[in-house]
Please model this.
Amino acid sequence: MPYYSPVRLFAITCATVPIVALAPAHAQEQQLSSIDMSVSQLFAFADEARDRGDYPTAETAYRALASNPDLELRTEARFRLALLFAGQNRNTDAAVLLRQILDEKPDAARVRLELARILALMGDMSGAARELRQAQAAGLPPEVARLVSIYTSALRSRKPFGLSVEIALAPDSNINRATQSTTLDTIIAQFDLSEDAQAQSGIGLSLKGQAYFRTGIDKRSNLLVRISGDGDLYKKSQFNDISLGIQAGPEMRSGKDRISPSVGYSYRWYGNDPYADTVNVAVNVQHPMGNKAQATFNGSIGHSNNRRNNLQDGEIYAASLSYERAISAKFGAGLSINAVRQDLLDPGYATASGSVNIFAYRELGKTTVVGSLGYSHLEADKRLFLFPRRRIDDRYNISLSSTFRQFTFKGFAPLLRLSYERNKSTVGIYDFDRVATEIGITRAF
Model:
């Protein structure tokens, strides 16, 4: 299916493009070292090679056209090449090409719909839904408006397995989120804090990843199993923070809503030693709000077993509600509200907290910029015996990240993330500020 925007082939059919070594291997004796073709002839040549199953020849021809200085021509060539890759299950290559088109033509709704379909096939349902919302925000020409239902249906197609990874170097001014004070006030006396209990700076390796497996239960539901992990690793191994988790449950549809209940188990190590493990049950509900927005609810109940302090064992209840809207093809924003109750054995450790976060993303050419701003408030049930005051925290955080797709390689692109966090607490040991940077690679689409 060609790109929906008319291509100005008729305007430059007299232009010629040198083609070298396009013939398939079985026809080498008839191959010419150089052939001059008009652009329209080269498109026809590539299409014929594609139709007869000679994909290497078609790919070479499309790539030659994709380097054309004319925007419409290279857009058409990239789009046809992306469809060729998609037909060969080379979805990562297809997604990278489609994103390159959108970097230059963000209002190309037909291209954005195809990217949504590819992301759905790759299992990135949230990314696919976001692309659909951005396409709707950009406005759909009449000839492609009917495709929305087709691609919305494509979101029901579930890739049986998938993997995502993010790797980054992470300079951090406070890797242990500790106070900068050298002393701590208690009801007994002022204690001197050890060096490890004070703020430590360092450069770490940040690793994030998720793998999933999906299989059909019936026509309207699937069983989804997710394994996720993240780790911050430092030269000072006593500050290593590693978590692994598994979540499993059905994905079901009720009208336009997607409902995903699950059960899960997670384990956390700190300083390479066991820290805590948690068993929980959760539910995720996604509700479309028109064509440009979506609301999401997450709720969970879990039991945490702290391996170092039994007084921190107990139940954890969490709920969040978020709203995201595509304002245009290049701009979107969202808001989330969260509440957490930790009903732990010692009331001094038991807390209730709430937070609000806002975020926005913007496409600036081949760079995606995401900014967020958040505030949270936490209160403990009672004061811990040693501390003169009950713990009350006010935390502020701000972050800005950019993905630079102009440097895409093998489906990955450089990522730069800057963040600042300030926690003001009535208990000195929890009072800290932190500046962190992540420089790494992430998916380029």
